[in-house]
Every structure is written in C-alpha cells, then in structure tokens.
Design goal:
Layout: H1 5-11, E1 14-15, H2 20-35, H3 40-50, H4 55-71, E2 85-86, H5 88-99, H6 104-115, H7 121-136
Pfam family, one: DUF6628
C-alpha cells in the first residue's frame, strides 16, 4: 500500500539527515524498533559501518532503544526502513543525538518532549553514550 503525497508529508514531514552517520543510526533504530533487539540487518549495517569495532555502537544503540521504549509515556513513531523521510520522533531523536554533548539543555528538553516525561536523565545518558561511541570510531553524529 502506497501513501499519497499529502499523507506522506503529514506522517513523514522531515527529510532524511544529510549526515551519513546519522543515516546509519536511523536505519539501525528503525530496524531494532520494528524487528527487535537482535535484528540481523541492523547488526549487519552497524558491522559494515564500523568494522571490527561494531560491538560498542550496536550494544549502545540497543540499550538506547530499550530505554526509550520503557521510559516513554506513549508510542514513539518510527517509519519503515525503506521510507526516504522521517517522522517527528525520528527527527527529534537524531537532533538529541547531535546535541547531547554540545547543547545538553536543548537535548534534555527535546527528550522530555519525545518521551512525555520529566525525568529523562537515564535515557539522555544512553543517548550520550551512543553519540560518544559513534564519535570515538570516527563517525560523529551531526544534525
């Protein structure tokens, strides 16, 4: 089933990120969100991007997804992997990952809005760990 252009823009209002590292993170988050923590395609994408150093970014992405799912007061909309646009939630999450180190107050407010709760420090720490893992391997996440 294909969506009409107005429906697509309403549900997926944001373009994909220009940063190739953010696209890797988005793909893995979409796969893990839709198919579970042990999704082979998410693992393969991270392995392909990071080579032998794939374990840390993959495990931290999995942990972030668990933290998001357990802390959220409602659902977090994710699009299927093949879609070339993003939901508001996906855009917010990638913005959080890009800002968590340099603009932590902004990232905290975005995370609180995304999760619908005030106490976001634990999930924000998970996001910071993902951001650091990507940066440590030469793949910084930018918005």
């Amino acid at each position: 089933m294909t969506m009409s252009a107005p429906a697509t823009l309403a549900l997926l209002p944001h373009p994909l990120p220009g940063c190739p590292n953010a696209r890797i993170a988005l793909f893995a988050m979409r796969r893990i969100g839709a198919h579970g923590l042990n999704d082979a395609r998410a693992a393969h994408a991270v392995f392909t991007a990071f080579g032998e150093s794939f374990r840390r970014p993959l495990m931290l992405l999995r942990g972030l997804m668990v933290d998001l799912a357990t802390a959220a007061s409602g659902t977090i909309a994710i699009a299927p992997c093949c879609y070339n646009r993003m939901t508001h939630a996906e855009s917010a999450l990638l913005t959080i990952l890009a800002r968590v180190e340099a603009q932590p107050d902004s990232a905290r407010l975005l995370m609180a809005d995304l999760l619908g709760i005030r106490a976001v420090d634990g999930v924000l720490a998970s996001a910071a760990a993902v951001t650091m893992a990507f940066a440590d391997e030469g793949r910084p996440l930018t918005a």
